[in-house]
Amino acid sequence: MRRARGGAGGRMAKHLRLARLLELLTVIKYHPDWGPKKLAKYFEISEKRLYDDLNELNAANIPLVYNGKGYSYLSMSALPPVRFTIDEALALVMCGTMLEGQKDDVYSRLARGAAAKLLELLPEESRRMVMALEGKVSVRGKGSSELNHALKAMNEAVASRSTIECSYYSYSSGKTTRRKIDPYGLIFRGNSWYVLGGCHSRGEVRTFRVNRMKDIEATGEKFEYPEGFSIEDHVRRSWAVFQGAETDVEVLFSPKLAPLIEEHKWQPEQEIDKLEDGSIIFKTKVAGTLEIRRWIMSWGEGAEALAPESLRHEIAGIAAGMAKSHARAKRIPGGAKKQAAPAAKKKKPRKMK
């Protein structure tokens, strides 16, 4: 695999500074009374760095002057107003709320800070509307505790095209091995984060669940993306993230479940045939049947796999095993069977003398 040319970290730093300079223009426009200390605190940088940014803007022919309290523009004609609609503001705040719902101390803190900065830039009326929703919007993540420091490390590796090493636990093999990975990108599916990347030991693109990646270390090596590689194209045929042989799948859904299936777009390429009794046949093509098998079974007796025959047999076998487990006496921890409590003995009525 070819090595990437150096300078990725420098380019990333330049992009971050450019984003800060653009935001600084907007903040000064709406808060001309903010002095150097408040501006530096807002951007979480030193006052020296702030002065460097101000000088950079002046050098770019953006005339800034100190007005006694903060900074103002000599001419506002070259600065188009940046205004959020109330819907745009709510959408950004909702994104922050979703991150907070993942119970992650890294991105939740950053999301809260970003939301606070957004509120400060909103007009007074819009700010009141957004703040009125505080405590009235809840987005709860289901088991997404893997969105942690490992995710932050992987984001940095993806952005800088840095090869990493980690200890990875494979659920299928039950073993933990040391892996060397070129992370091409991150995807979020089924309440979990995954990394798609080139696995050096397997010699192919593999999928890694982030919360199973431990002891992540940067190797100091850079990588280049495979020519023509696209994350979206790679997972397009997957039901969620995992790959396998492309298979045509057909599922019969009962009239009761049909509306729930029809109201959602499950796959980019799917077909639905409506039957006279109100039931439907859902058709799609997937790369591997493991994930769609779980989905079919989650609908219970209202779903029946019609094709392929191998998938139908797999589901029948699993269902039979579950039925057998639930038909026998309930087991409790320790392997003992839970026995029914003995019936209380009835006391004979005493004879009256």
State the gist of this model.
By secondary structure, this protein is of the alpha+beta class. The chain has helices at 8-30, 36-43, 47-59, 86-100, 107-121, 124-131, 149-160, 231-235, 258-262, 290-298, 309-327, and strands at residues 64-66, 71-73, 162-170, 175-189, 192-199, 204-209, 213-222, 246-253, 270-274, 280-287, 303-307. The protein folds into four domains: 8-73, Arc Repressor Mutant, subunit A (Orthogonal Bundle), CATH 1.10.10; 86-131, no CATH class; 159-229, SH3 type barrels (Roll); 246-326, Alpha-Beta Plaits (2-Layer Sandwich), CATH 3.30.70.
Query: Which oligomeric form is depicted?
Result: single chain
Q: Report the order of strands and helices.
A: HHHEEHHHHEEEEEHEHEEHEH
Distance, first to last CA:
103 Å
Q: Reading side by side through the largest sheet, how are the strands ordered?
A: 6-5-4-3-7
The total number of structural domains is 4
Mean pLDDT: 79
Total count of strands: 11
CATH architecture of the largest domain: 2-Layer Sandwich
Give me the number of helical elements: 11
Shape label: elongated
Query: What percent of residues are in strands?
Result: 15-25%
**Class derived from helix and strand content:** alpha+beta
CATH fold node name of the largest domain: Alpha-Beta Plaits
The major sheet is characterized as: 5 strands, antiparallel
Share of helical residues: 25-40%
Q: Provide the CATH top-level class of the largest domain.
A: Alpha Beta
Radius of gyration over C-alpha positions, nearest whole angstrom: 29 Å
- Extract low-pLDDT stretches: 1-8, 142-146
